[in-house]
Amino acid sequence: MNEGDRDGTRTTPLPFRAAVDALRSARLRPQIEVEPTPAPKRLAPFAYALEATVVDGEQELADGRLVLLHDPAGHDAWRGTFRLVTLIRAELEPEMAVDPLLPDVCWSWLTGALQARGLTYGEPSGTVTRASSHYFGGLSARPAASQIEIRASWTPREGLGGAPDTGAHLAAWCDLLAQVAGLPPAGPGDASVVTLPQRRGPQSR
Fold this sequence. Notes:
The chain is of the alpha+beta class. It has one domain. It contains 4 helices and 6 strands, in the order αββββααββα. It has helices at residues 14-25, 94-97, 102-116, 166-181; strands at 32-37, 46-56, 59-75, 80-92, 121-133, 145-156. The chain has a 6-stranded antiparallel sheet with strand order 1-2-3-4-6-5.
């Protein structure tokens, strides 16, 4: 966490402390391993970051990073004082990577995950990128690999005390991470969710 009160130059605002506490105390599905990671120092006066991995046994299905930014003075582009920024990556079956609707579907998973949790947010933006790797020569024994990458950010609406419900936003983000990884829905209410198929073997990282 970029907390200015550690070096005596500024005091960490209470709304930011509350938002970070909510992230730390959020209850998440067991297949998603979440832990703190160093936050960027130049995007906002205050920042906190988490990284997550979706695991199935010894297989890693997807990984991601979620960063909470806070500028007490507000930010014109955010239209608020908080911003959530994410990067999510997952390996795909090659036939899925050529689906022309895949980027639109992945973006709809993000907005749908937030809406399913009843969250209000603004100024969403981002990119969905797919890439394929084919191996030749000494690497020709490796099968072709395809990857999807989602980069996105949005402004969580602030609640009582000036802090957004970051715990619920983290849960929605984990819902998205699970969808991209191809996990089955977490609850009976999510039965209609379409997920990516499971990959055939453990991925290398």
